[in-house]
Amino acid sequence: MNKIRVLIADDSALVRDLIKAIIGLDPELDVVGEASNGREAVEKVRSLHPDIVTMDIEMPVMDGLQAIEQIMAENAVPILVVTTRGDAKTAYSAISKGALDLVVKPDVNIEEAQEFVAKLKLMSKVRVIRHLSGSFSRQRPAVIEPPVYQGDIGDRIVAIASSTGGPEALSVILSRLPERFPLPIVIAQHISEGFVSGMVGWLKTLSRIEIKVAENGERLRQGVAYVCPSENHMRVDSSRLITFVERHAKDIYRPSCDVLLSSVAESFGKKAVGVILTGMGSDGVAGMKKIKEAGGRTIAQDEKTSVIFGMPKIAIESGCIDRVLPLEAISGEIAKAGADAGVSAARTG
Question: What fold characterizes domain 157-348?
Answer without folding.
Answer: Rossmann fold (3.40.50)
